[in-house]
Amino acid sequence: MCYFIEMYLFGVENDVKKIKKTAFFILKLAIAGAVIYVLAARNPREIADCFRSFDLVWLVPALFFYLLHMQICALRWYRLTHVLNVQLGKFEAVSLTMQGYFFSLVIPGGAIGGDVVKMGVLAKRTPPGARMEGAFTILMDRIVGMIALFVLALILLCFTAPLLLNVRIPGVEIPAEWKFLPVAAIAGICVAGLGASCVIFMHKTVEKIPFCKKFLGVMDDKTHGLVNRLISAADTYKQQWREVLKLCVLSVFGVHLMTVVPFACILCGLGVSFSPLCLVAAVTIGNIIGLIPIFPSGVGGRDVATILILIAGGISAADAKTGQLLYTAIVLFANLLGGLFFLLDPGRKNMKELLAESENE
């Protein structure tokens, strides 16, 4: 954690790392592009027919609700900053959140790259004595979002396990006795994610382990008390557990379920009947698969997972693929809109330095 904060706040010049990061970013783009091409190439005529029949009016509510979920993310972060008394205005929270989405898409660091920019900008606008707390709010925002996502997914697995067992991967035959493995893997990812997200609040238990306590002490000395400040910030959130719980609930309904609404609008525009539970499961599990770092902004992995579940739920392959392609287009467009906030940000002159630091990590 300390290494992460120091790296992203101060940056270290390293051309080799920069080249590796850029190469990996290009590889991720290639993977995403290849996945989209394969999806479209299997039945191009049917997909083309679906695009022609799509009612473009439905793009308006789809984009509106997707942008709304991004604003709720900004509100969540704004509330988290105030728990630690980090001074951040509502519009600043919206602006930096949108810029984070934009830079997550266009710089090699991916999702973390967007957080790097937010950390750097927030550090520039925060008094020196409170910069660590500002960076920690961004980490906490990620943790709250992941807790909400994994809890929602575990609840959905209880009701959609039969649907998920019917998922078929074209060209891959899975023996009947092994069909439970993908469902078990998703459940395992959620449980592991929840454990990793909550461990930061369990530092007292970790400190009981002699090696860990000694290690934390050494790291605290090397970072001039940064570890203790991180622990103190975590304790503050733990004491404000009601606020954190409210934000987790807000994330379930206002963030993760809100991303389902744009997809529902798209399917309505295609004139497709669908099961709400199937759609919620497809989008939620797709979002989890999209967290895998080999996919830029989730594109590729999210598309495949969502389409396969929708097909298992009775939606035709052409409709599922067309819906997902339109959904991905909305995601990319919304992320690119974050660039407008960068252009209109009075503090953008400092951004070149911040981006140079993040690229050298």
Q: How do the strands and helices of this protein lay out in sequence?
A:
Blueprint: H1 2-10, H2 15-42, H3 44-53, H4 59-83, H5 90-106, H6 110-124, H7 131-165, H8 180-198, H9 203-207, H10 210-222, H11 226-239, H12 241-256, H13 260-270, H14 276-289, H15 301-312, H16 317-344, H17 351-359
Your description of this structure?
- With 361 residues, the protein is an all-alpha fold.
- It contains 17 helices and no strands.
- The model is unreliable at 1-13 (pLDDT under 50).
Q: Helical percent range?
A: over 70%
CA-based gyration radius = 21 Å
Tally of extended strands? 0
> Treating each run of at least 4 consecutive H or I residues as one helix, how many helices?
17
Largest sheet: none
Structural class: mainly alpha
Order of secondary-structure elements = HHHHHHHHHHHHHHHHH
Percent range for β-strand residues: under 5%
Report mean pLDDT, rounded to a whole number. Answer: 81
Low-confidence residue ranges: 1-13
Distance between the termini: 15 Å
Dominant shape: globular
